[in-house]
Amino acid sequence: MNGLDVYEILVREHQDMLLAYVSGIVDDHALVEDVCQEAFIDGFRNLTALRRDESFPAWLRTIARHRALAALRQRNREAVLSPATIAGMEEVFTAIEQTPGVGFSDRVAALRTCFDQLPDAMRDCCRLHYFDGQRTADIAERLGQSLAAVLKRLQRAREVLGDCIGRRLGLEDA
Amino acid sequence: MSDLPPLLLSSTSPGDDHTEGRRRAVDGLLRSVLGARHSQAGQRAMAALHNAPSQPAQDRVGTAQIRAVTGRARSPSSSTASHRRARPAPSRSHRTTMRQGAWAAATVAAVVIVLVFAGRSAGDRDDAQVVAVSGTVITSRAGRLDPVRDAMIISRGELVTIGVNSSLRLLWRDGTMLVCGADTRVQIEPDGVGKRLRLLAGRLDADVAPQPFDAPLRITSDDAAVTVLGTRLSLSLRDTGTSVAVARGRVEVRRLSDSVVAEVAGGQQLAVATSGPLRSETTPVVASANAAAVGTGLFGQYFNDIEMTQPVFSRIDRDVYFNFGRDSSPDPRIEPSTFAIRWTGQLQPKVSGRHVILCQVDDGIRIRLDGRLIMEDWRVYEPRWIRAEVDLDAGRRHAVEVEYYQDKERTVIQLWWQAKGVPQEIIPTSQLFPIRPAGAIDG
Q1: Given A40, B93, B347, B348, which residue has the most CB atoms within 10 angstroms?
Q2: What spatial distance separates the first Cα and last Cα of chain B, rounded to whole Å?
Q3: Which residues of chain B does A35 touch, with a Cβ-Cβ cutoff of 8 Å?
Q4: Does B199 or A48 have the greater pLDDT score?
């Protein structure tokens, strides 16, 4: 088993995380894939520069972020994230990674399962918003609901998902 | 605020950049997970690296270096420290080389896979396909370790190791489903008639389709052999020995040390003691065995042409609900604007009775249910809703085939249903069961 083989396992372990991270910066599915691919390649080629006390996933996210912002600039699209915004994103992913005994993939699996168990109305509303990228006002019009009702439904869906994930993972602060 | 649940509960206040960052992170997480997309980024990156192994920096990277990364305790990272470590972007020529490398590797891999799996699918009905994998799962074949991926074929002789906090679901062509839990090692034995598995550690749950009488499924551990003709069971290796729980049907358990045999019926479990009689006990529920009864999606074959003559790759799609965008490709291996997809599998209704199947599509659509064409609008046209009405039986799984093609402009395909007691909804993953057609390429 050589270095590349082991790195492949590392890639598999962090792929979900990186996909989620880059999806927070870029909303084009194909571009997200490209950025993640090139970040993994950069990561391997520069692995010797990683300090021993440095978090590998955080280091990988930095590479991916620069890749993502460069790709957006090339397309003349929004390409600025303030330091505070970057810190806010980092806080979320670091918090997830620091929970002992529960990996990112477990959370993704739990989220998928919990999402499938959502009441139909909440699930479809979430898909239209988070997957189709539709604006809440457009969703309201499509579903024949008020904007307030759609916003409430999304908020309630997040609450239900949060509770469900906490129960499935046995987290105390769920 | 240290976990995902409170993150999902977090509120936002416009204008606060820090909160904006948290919102972006949660949105990204939901988009990536709920998008039902199967990322190929890691695979493509590895293909590129395997194809161009002679970069100076890479030569200095050894197993020890990477093990140091995998073994490092997770520590909080400073975003400013991370920011300082920004990598300079490769030069344009460098970037071009890497891209060409990735495409070249993908092409070679596709050819190899066609040759290998065309042979396998025609010959060996005892190969299994990966239909769901999470965490770190590795297969050992021919002295080589490989990460296990969705839609991969696991063949006789392969030893699969499921890591801590990981899981694996395998599907055989006859519908037999195996769910391997965390910290499990299982091998598809290289020889013997019928499906033969060896459990070396951990736990597996199986939902076994009826097997030929002369070729039953057999699962062995260090101290027991379980013979199955068709049932739902769980097998666990514990410190005290093997434990067998049967949810449905009947299995034969043989203690290997003295060949004492016992039968375990549905609703019973048996712990294989080292000596003395083997006695089954009634057990109320085998909870995790139910996992095998939940659907995982449909088997999708992706083609680079409308006539579906140029297969490029296959994967399990959790449902048929896609909006790829305008002139966009569902995957970098597929040319944008013009491509086709064929999904195959089974559909299990929630209720019996008349169902309305609704499809939003741009461009062509064709749906067969139990071999009968129920929807066809095979033409280039704007996004539109098409409906068909069919009678479905909740007690059975109906064979389904969905064919779709895209020819420029918008790229939409969504499959919904509605019935009495079932509100209009996207046909959910739990009701879809993938079937890989003979000859379909892998990966």
Answers
A1: A40
A2: 39
A3: 41
A4: B199
| B46 three-class SS | helix
Which of the residue ranges A41-45, B60-64, B380-384 would you say has the lowest mean pLDDT?
Answer: B60-64
Which positions 42-101 of B are in contact with A (Cβ < 8 Å)?
42, 44-46, 48-50, 53, 55, 57-58, 60-63, 65-70, 72, 74-77, 79-83, 85-87, 89-90, 95, 98
Q: Which two tokens stand for residue A41?
A: 């390649």
3-state secondary structure of B187: strand
Q: B185 CA to chain A: closest CA distance, Å?
A: 17
CA–CA separation, B255 and B265 (whole Å):
17
Q: Are B340 and B305 in contact (CB under 8 A)?
A: yes
Query: Is A59 within 8 Å of chain B by CB?
Result: yes
A48 touches chain B (CB under 8 A): yes
Q: Do B62 and A46 touch (CB under 8 A)?
A: no
**Which residue has tokens 């779709």?**
B404
- Asked if B130 contacts B170 with a C-beta cutoff of 8 angstroms, the reply is yes
Question: Any chain B CB within 8 A of the CB of A76?
Answer: no
CB contact A170 to B (< 8 Å): no
Structure tokens at A93: 């992913």
Mean pLDDT over residues B181-203, rounded? 84
Backbone angles phi, psi at B12, to 5 degrees: -120, 150
Backbone angles phi, psi at B314, to 5 degrees: -130, 155
Q: Whole-prediction pTM value?
A: 0.41
pLDDT of residue A29: 77
Please state, in angstroms and as integers, the Cα–Cα distance from residue B117 to each residue in B143, B166, B167, B441, following that order.
Answer: 19, 26, 24, 7
Token pair 């046909």 in the structure block, residue: B427
